[in-house]
Design goal:
single chain; two-stranded parallel sheet; about 45% helix; about 10% strand
Length: about 190
């Protein structure tokens, strides 16, 4: 019964513990994350009906990574090691050279500044929030962009449809990323 979409791993752990009357401190969360990563390292290799790269993701990342005027960074609620395990499995980690990860905070909005700092450090030039487009599949992803002054592209490949992402305030919404031209246009 704990909503996970768009949440950080730390928030999910604290929420689950709280619902069971268990107090957790940062040390306990770190321990739980370590155990999770051990299981994830095995589980990522198991077959499953919902595992795979979503339509259009790889062609879009190829197109964006070849441009001089684009810098790709992650903004995810996953702890960094978990994001790496998942994305390396699908050969997507190579597109990203930093970001903001769920290790640092429980609320995703706090991770935006980390992602911006990471992108700035790696690119060697400062980025402003209004130059950023957050791509996500939940209203919480859209809320992070809005709260931080960035644009948002809602992609209806998760639990939320296009209408829910529009109602959340996404600047652009696509059913998926399979139409490369539409995705590039939506990104601005």
């Amino acid at each position: 019964g704990v909503p996970m979409a768009g949440r950080t791993d730390r928030w999910i752990i604290r929420e689950l513990a709280g619902r069971h009357g268990v107090e957790v401190d940062d040390q306990a969360i770190t321990h739980i994350c370590r155990r999770y990563l051990q299981h994830l390292s095995r589980e990522v290799h198991a077959t499953g009906p919902t595992k795979g790269v979503l339509p259009g993701v790889t062609p879009l990342l190829d197109a964006l990574s070849s441009r001089d005027d684009v810098h790709l960074a992650l903004l995810t609620g996953n702890v960094e090691a978990g994001a790496r395990i998942k994305l390396e499995h699908f050969d997507l980690w190579r597109y990203f050279d930093g970001g903001g990860f769920g290790d640092a905070a429980e609320e995703r909005t706090a991770l935006f500044a980390d992602a911006l700092r990471s992108a700035t450090a790696r690119a060697g030039s400062a980025f402003q929030a209004e130059q950023v487009t957050v791509v996500g599949d939940t209203p919480l992803d859209v809320a992070v962009a809005t709260a931080c002054g960035a644009r948002s592209l809602g992609v209806a490949t998760g639990s939320f449809d296009e209408q829910a992402l529009r109602e959340a305030g996404a600047d652009a919404v696509l059913p998926d990323l399979s139409d490369l031209d539409a995705a590039l246009e939506a990104l601005g």
